[in-house]
Amino acid sequence: MSSAALEILDVGGAETLRAIADGMERGRSESALVALLPRHGDLVRRVASDPTDYLRGLADGYARAAARQQVESVWSGPHSHTVPVRSTEQALVDLIGAAGDQLWLMTYSARPHPPVITALCAARERGVRVRVVVETLKGAAGALAGREPGAAFLGVPGVELWHWPVPARPEQSARMHAKVAVADRRELLVSSANLTQSGTVTNIEAGLLVRGGSAPRRAAEHLDALVAAETLARLRVGS
Asked: Is 134 among the domain residues?
């Protein structure tokens, strides 16, 4: 048995591995199978000799484990020694550090915060695709000042910046106000904290960190759908 099946689970999840097994059983061409995981065609080719029953069993076991969802509260600001809580900054840095394939971040405002930027640079060195959705000065309509929020990430090589174009918004008052992080469709952080030192460390902010279950996958799928529908567009920010 090849280790490629385990790697496919890491980057594509149980549904992808199950679809590959089904395609193999139906005699689909190699190109059709690779299309199920186009960025990792080498892995798909390596599992071609594995028994389909083995691949399905591996996928089912992974899916059962992923369904065991864990939810943890995270906080920024003052902490109490009597009630230990996870810090937003540490939860975010750990989530970025756990990403092996893809990472989505969303924030309304942003300023360069060294622990986060360092973690993002390390993720890019591992080959992780990093996409960051930000509000723009134009979109904020005067509510944000200074540099474009997207400029906070210019020090991350290969980062993709995205935004919600103002003409695509249903009303002039609509804002890109989400604060979300999703790693590999397996971990999801939803928080009130912007990606700034104030948001992740100083202010009193609260959020939930979700591991496993369907929520991380659905969040990533929703963002992918917004890109496919051209609701979100690439953003170019000058240095």
From this structure: yes
Q: How confident is the model at residue 188 (pLDDT cuts 50, 70, 90)?
A: very high
Which residues have a Cβ under 8 Å from the Cβ of 198 and sit 6 or more positions away? 111
Task: In whole angstroms, give the CA distance from residue 216 to residue 48.
Answer: 29
DSSP character at residue 38: G
Give 49-78 pLDDT, tens digit per residue. 899 999 999 899 888 877 778 899 999 999
Exposed e or buried b per residue across 153-187, where buried means at least 16 C-beta atoms within 10 angstroms of its C-beta = bbebeebebbbbeeeeeeeeeeebebbbbbbbbbb
Do 55 and 74 reside in the same domain of the chain?
no
Strands 70-76 and 86-87: parallel
CA-to-CA separations, 96 to 42, 100, 189, in angstroms, rounded: 25, 9, 10
Helical segments of 130-202, H only: 137-140, 197
Domain count, the chain: 2
Instruction: Give 196's Cβ-side CA count (13 Å radius).
Output: 18
Angle at which helices 114-125 and 88-98 cross, to 10°: 10
Residues 59 and 75 in one domain: no
Helices 4-25 and 52-66 pack at an angle, to 10 degrees, of 120
Structure-token match 């509260």, residue found: 73
Residues 183, 83: one domain?
yes
